[in-house]
Design brief:
Distance between the termini: 58 Å
CATH superfamily of the largest domain: TonB-dependent receptor, beta-barrel domain
Helix content: under 10%
CATH architecture of the largest domain: Beta Barrel
Strand content: 35-45%
CATH topology of the largest domain: Maltoporin, Chain A
Number of strands: 43
Radius of gyration: 29 Å
């Protein structure tokens, strides 16, 4: 390990000297016109070639910040103009400007030597500044501009100038020959909504894809879409790092810690800017289904597989890239969340109505977020952004005795402070036994969940921003046979029962500082403390666990020369204190993990490379080196290829992560292998991936296909062996090979207005060398199919509309654990049968404040009839509630109401 560490130290010293030397340079800032990342790269490259020591261009602020020592800024700005970009001292030639790619054709209203404030946002125009003969007109790109101005002149205007940023057209006309009404009507006839006339749907739908503007735009408000490409719109996205800062294009608010509120966009969008395969899921997607908690937030998403973990506790688990949930990093606000003792039930602790957005990364994620990610990362952002106070009430109930209420309040305190109150309560009161085996299909109980968030944002002036959060959860569940009475002692109880009581408390803070005059340079510090207590019993078996976790992450971000070369470096610390009791065994351990990391991002005109590594000094697992790399290449703006590779490691919590098998009479057997955690070594795996993203036009509308292949190879793994004996649950370290191949292709298209279609197919090949030989990992279907259809009607004058959503999941056969040594009546087939699950929902938005919905889950009513082995004798040798491969409940219907105050 000496070589990587020494290289890291040398690299850090080099970056530090670069930082120190940069402080002696003079710095100036100039207005420069540009549109997109290609413009940014071109401007910074021209400035560097002209002699600038550093050059940082802000697309949002339309400013170029220079650091020079000898060369004059005039010489630099002249070269920038020669590259095609107007600035406050020099103007590009028309020939050079016209030769730029379509997405780089900015609005040329900036005149040389124009005295503009360098801090004025280019889209800050409001209704109060609109001039006479200036009218609001919607549009997107250079093609829109030409169309609007031509229509104006054809209607009699002497001159017309459309401004994409202000979304206005300035007209010069003779009132005796024409009128503004006539001109605006002609503009609408050409396909562009304006403040007096609206284009017909037929004309609007016939516009090129790049010209399809947001028709929900409110005139007089800043344009939510400032930068455009010729054939495909730029996407807002979230940076996953604590120290990054960006400006929201739709709300003009800066934020730290990777928290950016996106403007209008698709409900689920694959970020075209990220080097990794990152999907952004917003509230619009979450409203397509019941989405009572995080485990139900992916029912309309093809990337994540959701299934019941057992037939007694009714909990669900996620799988990604063919591997269990424990291999995916699950974070909240970029902080570790569902891990350790929370692994089994943590998905139930994030209510769906609390979620503002989700970022899903397939494959290796950034090293700045830790070492545990193997198959990817799922990060959840909570509600915390609002311009005006907003209180929402959600009521939900299904037809089988489950009810919940959510109250959320997001409100600004002043121009710097804002706060969020989140309250959730749910209860399951009915005895649901659809398969008539005498066991509840899902547990009864209640949950109280409350959180408070406080945000401070003064990045514009002082450069500081901070986010504070506190969360408390109390969850009590009872499951088992219908006649079970929790009030009786376990040894006097004639029925089999399960009780799970969980208390959880967490507090966190994220603070960042952006260096003045250096928007590219920032420092962020995240801290979190978590207390988790679980007391539970499964029949006559007791399991209790207590976890104390402290996490800290410090990240510094800056550039080398210009924003084509970015780097992040920092240090982290993780403490996990575990105390577990199973039957009479008392197990305790403390994991202490300090770590350091660095990450470099190289951005070119068509490519992005992100390479990082970290070294963690684990007191029980030893020193671990974790490198990761992501590469993206844009063959065209519509054809993108990504490559990724990386390593991850984790320590297995074999009891907490295997609770789905506790509702059985399997005896736990651990075969130690010289490790320091339950006698086992840590899990280490390499993940490799390649993906192709292709966009094209279908029926004149945007369509996209994404195909990806990932392979995960385990260097070491803690295998959970269900085949060694049906009466045993055996854990041991891998000796041999264990791998998972995952292929997925997804097609998204819109055959006609307001109707979205998503089709997907997935293939998994997951195998491991068990003691008995190489076998397929159980409960993993090789073939899966997915269909999601979403249709909504046009909004009426009050903002009301209907939405119709349906999702079909087809799951192929799965290998089941070997039960051949059981008596014949308690044996399972070698493979399960395939099945399909259909979910649907209809919702009605009466206006912007009231929404009602009704839906159904598992409308095909397929359920696993033999979900519990030997259910008539739960205290016998063959009882097993963990052999679940399909739904255990028939069709279930629900209703809900959303009210915003």
């Amino acid at each position: 390990m000496k070589l990587p560490i020494s290289r890291f130290i040398l690299g850090a010293l080099f970056l530090f000297t670069q930082f120190i030397s940069a402080q002696t340079l003079s710095k100036t800032q100039f207005k420069v016109k540009g549109n997109c990342e290609m413009c940014q790269t071109r401007i910074e490259s021209a400035a560097k070639k002209a002699g600038a020591k550093t050059a940082v261009y802000s697309i949002d602020l339309q400013t170029l910040t220079l650091e020079t020592d000898k060369v004059s800024t005039d010489d630099i700005l002249k070269k920038v103009a020669e590259a095609g970009h107007d600035n406050e001292k020099f103007k590009a030639s028309d020939t050079t400007y016209e030769g730029l790619p379509g997405c780089c054709h900015y609005d040329r209203d900036l005149q040389p030597s124009q005295a503009e404030s360098h801090h004025e946002h280019p889209t800050s125009t409001t209704a109060s500044t609109k001039k006479e003969n200036e009218f609001y007109v919607r549009g997107n790109c250079a093609s829109c501009k030409a169309r609007i101005e031509k229509a104006s002149k054809d209607a009699g205007a002497n001159a017309a100038e459309w401004n994409a940023e202000k979304q206005t057209v300035t007209l010069n006309f003779d009132p005796s020959k024409t009128s503004s009404d006539k001109i605006l009507k002609a503009i609408a006839d050409a396909g562009h909504d304006n403040e007096k006339y609206k284009a017909s749907d037929a004309v609007y739908n016939g516009l090129p894809g790049c010209c399809l503007y947001d028709r929900e735009f409110t005139f007089g408000e800043p344009n939510p879409k400032v930068h455009y490409e010729e054939e495909t719109k730029h996407e807002d996205h979230k940076d996953n790092e604590a120290s990054s800062t960006k400006e929201d294009h739709s709300q003009h608010e800066k934020s730290i810690d990777g928290v950016v509120v996106t403007g209008s966009k698709a409900a689920t969008a694959l970020s075209k800017k990220e080097a990794g395969l990152v999907f952004n899921i917003d509230k619009k997607e979450l409203l397509k289904a019941a989405c009572c908690n995080l485990s139900e937030s992916f029912e309309t998403n093809a990337t994540v597989d959701v299934s019941f973990s057992n037939a007694v506790t009714g909990t669900k688990q996620l799988k990604m890239l063919g591997l269990d949930q424990k291999y995916t990093s699950l974070t909240k606000e970029q902080l570790p969340e569902i891990r350790g003792l929370a692994s089994a039930y943590g998905l139930n602790f994030i209510p769906g109505r609390w979620i503002e957005s989700i970022q899903l990364t397939k494959g290796g994620s950034t090293v700045t977020n830790g070492y545990e990610s193997i198959t990817g990362q799922i990060n959840t952002e909570l509600l915390k952004n609002a311009k005006t106070p907003e209180t929402s009430l959600n009521l939900f109930s299904d037809f089988n005795g489950r009810a919940e209420v959510n109250i959320t309040n997001v409100s600004p305190i002043n121009d710097k402070w804002s706060q969020t109150f989140l309250l959730h309560g749910n209860g399951t009161f009915g005895n649901t036994d659809m398969n008539h085996d005498g066991f509840l299909d899902r547990p009864k109980g209640t949950q109280i969940n409350a959180a408070y968030l406080l945000n401070y944002n003064d990045l514009e002036k002082s450069g500081f921003g901070s986010h504070f959060g506190i969360n408390f959860i109390r969850d009590e569940r009872t499951a088992g046979q219908v006649g079970f009475d929790k009030k009786l002692a376990q040894d006097k109880q004639p029925f089999y029962g399960v009780g799970i009581d969980i208390s959880r408390f967490q507090v966190w803070n994220k603070t960042g500082y952006v260096f003045k005059g250096k928007p590219y340079q920032s420092i962020g510090w995240m801290n979190q403390y978590v207390y988790h207590q679980q007391d539970s019993f499964f029949g006559l078996r007791n399991y209790a666990g207590q976890q104390h976790t402290y996490y800290s992450n410090l990240i510094f971000e800056s550039i080398i020369g210009n924003t084509n070369h970015k780097y992040k470096a920092g240090a982290s610390f993780l403490y996990d204190g575990y105390k577990e009791t199973y039957l009479i065994d008392d197990m305790r351990r403390n994991e202490i993990v300090p770590g350091i990391f660095a990450e470099y991002t190289l951005t070119g005109l068509k490519y992005t490379l992100v390479a990082g590594s970290r070294v963690d000094f684990h007191n029980l697992a030893g020193t671990q080196f974790t490198p990761r790399l992501n590469f993206k290449y844009d063959f065209t703006p519509q054809t993108i290829v990504r490559l990724s590779a990386g390593r991850g490691f984790r320590t297995a919590n074999v009891f907490a992560e295997s609770q789905q098998y506790f509702a059985s009479n399997r005896a736990i057997n651990i075969l130690p292998n010289g490790g320091n955690i339950y006698g086992l070594k840590p899990e280490i795996a390499w993940n490799y991936g390649v993906s192709l993203q292709q966009e094209f036009k279908l029926f004149g509308r945007k369509s996209s296909i994404v195909a990806d292949f990932f392979r995960t190879d385990f260097q070491d793994q803690v295998l959970v062996d269900l085949d060694k004996s049906p009466q045993q649950l055996t854990f041991y370290n891998l000796e041999g090979k264990s791998f998972a191949n995952s292929f997925q292709t997804q097609w998204d298209f819109t055959p006609f207005k307001n109707f979205d279609v998503r089709l997907a197919y997935k293939y998994y090949d997951v195998q491991a060398d068990y003691i008995g030989g190489r076998r397929e990992v159980p409960f993993m279907a090789k073939h899966r199919g997915f269909v999601n259809l979403a249709y909504s009607t046009n909004k009426n004058d009050k903002g009301g509309f209907w939405s119709f959503d349906t999702t079909l999941n087809w799951v192929g056969k799965q290998r089941l654990p070997d039960t051949s040594s059981n008596p014949a009546e308690f044996q399972l087939a070698t493979y399960s049968e395939s099945y399909a699950v259909l979910n649907a929902q209809i919702s009605k938005n009466f206006n912007k404040k009231i929404r009602a919905y009704v839906g159904g889950e598992n409308l095909t009513s397929y359920y696993q009839k033999n979900a519990i082995v030997d259910f008539k004798n739960p205290f016998g040798n063959y009882f097993d509630g963990g052999m679940v491969y399909a739904p255990i409940m028939k069709a279930n219907f629900y209703v809900g109401l959303d009210v915003t105050f």
